[in-house]
Write the structure tokens for this entry.
Amino acid sequence: MAERLRVPPGQDVTEKFPVLTYGATPKFDPKKWSFRVVGLVENPIEFTYEQFMKLPTVKITADFHCVTRWSRLDNLWEGVSIHEILRTAKPKPDAKYVMAYCDGGYTTNVPLSALMADNVLLAYKHDGKNLDPDHGWPLRLVVPSRYAWKSAKWLRGLEFMTDDRPGFWEVNGYHNDADPWKEERFSD
């Protein structure tokens, strides 16, 4: 019964970690990879792969809910807390939304308020192992309060914005907010 209370309406629990992707899995080259934070921040930043991997590491355990109706419970994620990025970049007061940019041209939008949760991180490990390339290696945004498409794979940057803009799936019919507890799967 306790497990069922952790599963949003319309979801089924799985032990598997299905791969759902639009497009090809990008190739990773640590010498060419960078992560940028731009837009409405006091300190725009850019990290090389080597610099990013030296940032303080945190671990969180969080459930993961996909819009295709599966949920995987108790995922152990490891990476950099979003709060480390926020402390460094210092979003300006008028920043209310964030656009995540990924390899392959993928984007997704998230309200800054959702990103500020204590369990949001930029993950490079899942269940004690480096992320598989198909699951977002070398970096994945993890936003447990939203459906999984907001936990963007192959993350390369964040843009802080005053106004909301839809990302890839949002333009293609998916709900803008993606709250699994409200079953915000598709736009009306």
Q: What stands out?
A: The radius of gyration is 16 Å.
